[in-house]
Queue: 2 jobs
Job 1
Amino acid sequence: MIVCVTAKGPGPEDLMEERFGRSPYFLFKNTEGGEWSSIANKFADTAGGVGPRAAQVLIDRGTHVLITGNIGGNALAVLQAAGIEIYLFKSSGTAADAFQKFIAGQLKKFS
Amino acid sequence: MRLVVASGKGGTGKTLVAANLAAVLSSEMEVVLVDCDVEEPNAHLFFPSEEKVLPVLIDVPAFESSRCNHCGNCSDSCQYGAIVVLREQLLFFPAMCHGCGGCELVCPQGAISMAKRPIGHIAFSTPRQGLVLITGVLHEREVMSPRVIREALNYASGHALVICDAPPGTACPVVETLEGADACIFVTEPTRFGLHDLTLAAGVAELLGVPSGVVINRSMGDDDSIRDFCRARKLPVLTTIPFDRDIAETVNSGQLLTDRMPIMRGQFRELFSRACVLTGV
């Protein structure tokens, strides 16, 4: 299962980013194992319409689960239509922390 | 001639100046007053009158789902993130669409045709002899104010004298209003906010090549900060309106200074002739 965490930097030790559409980076990790991978969000500084386009990035990467802090209405519509599950991580911590909390079943599912 | 009344900072008296100017000039010539502050038009408050309304429509794609093979070309081509294509589904966000028609061009299936969607309306009225008021109105939850402004200006084009009440700020709506104007009157107030935003707005007019002058509203006599700025930037101070209780009461009750205070008629006529000088006419 591919998990995406929104982050302020490109590595798992970088802080998690609470915004979805304007997150500087999207970090990906497969729960079956393997390394982290990341992509810079080229829409982070765009004026508008970022939510759906950021969601498209996750869809193209075959994402199953998104961990983020906040999500806008348009992005939510796209992610839900694509069947991507959303978990909210509200406290501060690194992307790796957020991933561990998800694995441990400590994050609340957004519905 | 098209004359724009702008400010930078909101609430400095753009509408006050535009409405009084239009009213006093309409007694001697045909004037079209265009309210370009389409997110919050208020010139009509000075001119209560029966309105006729026409919609502002923009193009939006209509999708024929039976033809769509979810190739994603439309989504890739959309610069505004308005289309998302999933494996078996297409999502469209009308409020984000700018109506460019690019998606129709790139669809290999011919599944997209263009339809119309209203984003605002234009109201027309003739509140007094010699004056036509054209008000652009952007509907709630819509964002494309420049489209509504452009349409309002199109209806006014060709008339001998058009006065535009501009939106505040310095962003796209102001650029849309200012571009191609013959002259601009900046209304400011002698405060740090007034000066700060005037500085930005004057920069926009300069870039667009629109000759400008300044009206100092709510003057308390000592307007040195504004006057120093105007001198440095070679912007003429066209007139000064005092910070005065009678003026405030008149305006706040929806009345025109040029109707209630005869002395103001001369002042606004004088303002107009000085604005004409800006254009080099």
Job 2
Amino acid sequence: MSEKTYRPGNYPDLPPPPGTVGVYGWIRQNLFSSISNSLLTIISVLLLYYLIDGIIGWFFLDAVFDADSKIACRKINDGACWAVITRRVGQFVYGFYPEAERWRIDITFLTMFVAFAPLLYPDIPKRKWLLYFSVFYPFFAFVLIMGGYFGLQKIEYSLFGGFMLTVILGVCGIVCSLPLGILLALGRQSNLTVVRTLSVCFIEFMRGVPLITLLFVASSMLNYFLPPGTNFSILVRVIIMFTFFSAAYIAEVIRGGIQAIPKGQYEAADALGMSYWQKTRFITLPQALKISIPGIVNTFIGLYKDTTLVVVIGLLDPLGIGRAALADTKWNGLSTETYLFVALFFFVSCFAMSRYSLWLENKLNTDKK
Amino acid sequence: MKTKMLLAGVTAGVMFAGSVLASTLDDVRARGKLNCIINTGLAGFAAPDDKGNWTGFDVDFCRAVAAATLGDADKVNYTTATGKTRFTKLAAGEGEILSRNTTWTFSRDVDLSQTFIGVNYYDGQGFMVPKSLGVKSAKGLDGASVCIQTGTTTELNLAEYFKGNNIKYNPVPIETNAEAQELYKAGRCDVYTTDASGLYATMMSFDNPSDHMVLPEIVSKEPLGPVVRHGDDQWADIVSWVLRAMMAAEEKGITSKNVKELAAKDNKDKEINRLLGKDPLQGLSKLGLSPDWAVNVISQVGNYQESFEKHLFPLTIKRGMNALYRDGGLHYIPPIK
């Protein structure tokens, strides 16, 4: 045996002993380091196998994607019966909006991204021009969806439903409640007694009343208060209620942001001789809004999901459409499939909002980098 | 109680203001569409099909009124309402008819200032059991566990019925119909009780409906019918006679298939002639309807039997109390003369 000898300090780094590195090493160290660990691993793998096998089987392999009814589904295979979704996907997306007019919804939805792009992404090229479109967009969307102008067929609000209704309620509520919430937050911090009292009363009342109550007020009570004949659509009434409700929460979130700003900032602004509006625009709001982003998005996601509550006043959001589909004798009993599909839709939208908020936070997080 | 009175008062006020403007029939004709308030989804009574068209027993009645007043059964706008919002929607004028399996009770008729124009479906609380339980009558349910929705009239009916018959039972309180279905399927309760039509719909949602049965006993009265607002008798008459025309058509054997033929010839039964506009029906002009109103209803929607068989037979609901009087049921309509 010839052992190579090295001078002190010149000994080379030897490779680690075999069985401690690489995939094999990792498995040995983490999964099979002892007898009990090995047993646990084997049991878990078996459990996972049965679970995933069952789930994939139910979701995809044994599932039926097109059939005439639940009974027809069951004849083909015993997995999920997605036919209830595929046959009714139009209803889930557009509600009862007439089929020939659905392109109007498609266009409104696609242009929505164009209108929102300059607001959501400040670095976008040609932002100024796009902003003009954003200002013009609400009118454009209203005319296109409701119709009645420019030779477009007028569509009754009672035909609205499905994801389209959720998006309309959610987007209108979110867009309107942010500015209102900011004003309320500023009003609550104001030195003017009347403004402050009114803001406090509004916020406390809206936060103190359950959303369902407000929706009932929108659907029933407003009819009694308004003079007969002023029949403005329930959709508008519900949007107003959603806006008020979420504005109260937004106001409190932003107030938290405002109060987190060190007092020295205000004193510096005062020392510079800034007016109230200058101070608000250049000192208070940029910092307060940045701090409150997670809270604001949190409120928005809550609002978006709360739109499902309109079911109780008889508007058919995706959940309502799903329940109506289950009331059809052909599809009676497929509740798991229906609810999973609706859940997927909400998850995708809410997850997108949450990702955007993270991106925005990182982008604006200039002082803590 | 005070709020209820206030509500009733305001409702009456709103309706008074509404009735001064124009008659309901004129409103409907001017609009060219009938606004009908229906259920958000109840198997057999109102549910959208795959193409988004509402169908069902209650929906058929909306279509019948549209056929009688506008000549076209498709000219209906449907507004959906939940149990809680239906009456205010009707009072606020969001619809001319509430056709939403609504139970006719004293306080709804009187206190809420509405007019129930008749009964189109006699429902009642029943019991569903698995056939494997081997029970043939509700009297044999001694010691059974019963799934029951809390805070409903069904809870009270159940207690009264079982107490009256000296039967012991274990109530399993639940909140919603969906929850009840799951518990019943899992065998947590032997019996599920709610309105019989609801029991049949629940049964059809099971994978093996034939393993279950609805017991013959019906323990409460739930007469369901269309509702209109107080204050326009002409409209209430129109709506109620449309319902009676559908039943009369069944009684006289007039169906959507033979109605055109019968309307064209002189029938021996003069009542058929009057109904189908061959012979004059005195007072029809007061209703503001054209002589072919019933022909439109029957040819486009069908008679009562056709509507019933189309929508409720798939749920295995039998005619039972809803048969005509001559077949042992409760539907007995005044003569058309």
